[in-house]
Amino acid sequence: MTGESASAETLISRIRDEVLGFVDMQQVTTFGELANLITSGFAAVLVEGVPYAVLGGLQGFMIRGISEPSTEVTVRGSREGFTEAIRVNISMVRRRLKSPALAFEMLTAGKTTQTAVCLCYMQDRVSRRLLDDIRARIQDCPLEAVLESGYIQPFLENKRRSLFTSVEATERPDTLCGKVLEGRIGVLVDGTPLSWWFPPCLWNIFSRWTITPSIRCMRASSASSNTSPFSSACSCPGCMWRSAPIIPRCSRRCC
Fold first, then answer.
1. For 145-161, how does the pLDDT look when each residue is reduced to its tens digit (9 = 90+)?
2. Are the C-beta atoms of residues 155 and 166 closer than 8 Å to each other?
3. Cys-Cys crosslink for 148: which of 68, 125, 168, 192, Cβ 3.0 to 4.6 Å?
4. Is 110 left (phi over 0), alpha (psi -120 to 50) or beta?
5. What's the pLDDT tens digit per position in 121-134?
């Protein structure tokens, strides 16, 4: 290393460690990564003779505030829900899981939009085979634009025509933290106020629309049969989970 290059390395090191006070700092070596971060609200510092750039986050975008999820209402739990800003969603997960084993892996999807995608998982509990498979699916996504998480969902599904779902979604950070602690993988997409997680539980595979009507038809047929032990059971969606002795007759007009 020559004296000029050594002085340049020393200069940028002092700027990075002593002058800049950014919380979110990154270091890149390619112009593609540099352009992507600058368009995402980062400021770059380049020094002649240094083969990398130091960037700090200066994002000032207008974002929607944190509010209660509309589809997952709870009485005793947290009232916080994911928002459209991926950095805010990451901070809500990190605030709940202060373990050093928690990892956030940033990827990009969409050749034109360069949408930020974050994989969230516990390093000591996740399946490495599943993690590599999901990472490869996101990186090989051929779409030109990814404007929300629904764009990449078909690429995360195991089989598009399968009767069982392989991806589940949640709007609650505490729900995602619970799934991550079980060894599952969460996927956050910039611009979407929800998170995907997989693999799903055994009970969640029955949420696919092709399965639910079949279950309701079986309950309806058993309720109309005189020989069935559930002949007096209610088959409406509101109380079909209860047993026959509890609901001899439904009070809902839909039944």
1. 999 888 998 888 876 66
2. no
3. 192
4. left
5. 999 999 999 999 99
